[in-house]
Amino acid sequence: MILIDTHCHLDVDAFDADRAEVLAAARAVGVKSIIVPGIDAAGWDKLLGLCASDAELYPALGLHPVYLERHAEGDLAALEQRLATAKPVAIGEIGLDFHAKDADRDRQLALCRAQLRIAREARLPVLLHVRKAHEEMLRLLTETPVIGGTAHAFNGSLQQAQRYIDLGFCIGFGGMLTFERSRRLRRLATELPLEAIVLETDAPDLTVASHQYQRNSPAYLPEVAQTLAAVRAEEPIRVAAQTTANARRLLVG
User: Fold this and answer.
1) Residue 223 pLDDT class (50, 70, 90 cuts)
2) Domain 3-252 adopts which CATH fold?
3) Which of 176, 128, 179, 175 is nearest to 150 (CA)?
4) How open is the CA angle 230-93-16, to the nearest 5 degrees?
5) What pLDDT is attached to residue 72?
6) What is the CB neighbour count within 10 angstroms for residue 86?
7) Where in the chain are the domains?
8) C-alpha span between 120 and 106 (Å, rounded)
9) Tens digits of per-residue pLDDT, 192-202?
10) Which residues, other chains included, contact 11 with Cβ-Cβ below 8 Å and sequence gap of 6+?
């Protein structure tokens, strides 16, 4: 199987000690390409340097909604300036996260809206992080349409998933799908068209069932693919081929 990990934070400190080994292990099991999303401006140089070292590592640049305290006033302008030289494949990881009771919703909305405008002007897809805020996110996408992207680690309803798909998005499934207790998520994975699904790990977070409580890795992406095939009663090779084609269409080209 040839797979693409559409969301993996390979640049973060958790991989500093053994990044080359992690990447080699992923390649050994068929994970050919990896999209590496940015989360704050301070990390963009490291991320871009990593991706420049390997033609199958693709950068995305963005300002994550959870880390508002890390974002400075000039970061949006810096993001626009970076697009001319960095050539990211997407704007991300961006979005809305209203899970915490004290979430600064107004600031998150303003930050997300601004990054959607940047993505639209640059004609780039977006990598969305959305938690407890799908209706608000869908409203923003209607107000500021972009050319599509991925709804990463999707946890909404079938109806919301379909609305994202109608807007040009694919739905991302990762390690949570591999847990038998994820019945609602597994049911959703059977209800969506395979042409609207991409695979991801979100490593080092959200690991697969076989490595529970351990650091996640892009090398575990085949377990997500195998689980998706099993719950859909489809051949793993077909699931791999279609999800890889979806990722290429949206992000890699």
Assistant:
1) very high
2) TIM Barrel (3.20.20)
3) 128
4) 85
5) 95
6) 18
7) 3-252
8) 21
9) 999 999 999 99
10) 36, 43, 46, 47, 50
Annotate the chain with three-state secondary structure.
CCEEECCCCCCCHHHCCCHHHHHHHHHHCCEEEEEEECCCHHHHHHHHHHHHCCCCEEEEECCCHHHHHHCCCCHHHHHHHHHHHHCCCEEEEEEEECCCCCCCHHHHHHHHHHHHHHHHHHCCCEEEEEECCHHHHHHHHHHCCCCCEEEECCCCCHHHHHHHHHCCEEEEECHHHHCCCCHHHHHHHHHCCHHHEEECCCCCCCCCHHHCCCCCCHHHHHHHHHHHHHHHCCCHHHHHHHHHHHHHHHHHC
- To which residue do tokens 């090779």 refer? 237
Q: Check whether 140 has a pLDDT greater than 90.
A: yes
- Who's near 71: CB < 8 A, 6+ residues apart? 40, 41, 63, 111
Q: What is the dihedral of CA 92, 172, 177, 57, to 10 degrees?
A: -60
CA separation for the pair 203, 221 (Å, rounded): 10
How does pLDDT run across 152-204, given as a tens digit for each residue? 999 999 999 999 999 999 999 999 999 999 999 999 999 999 999 999 999 99
Per the listing, tokens 């030289």 go with 85
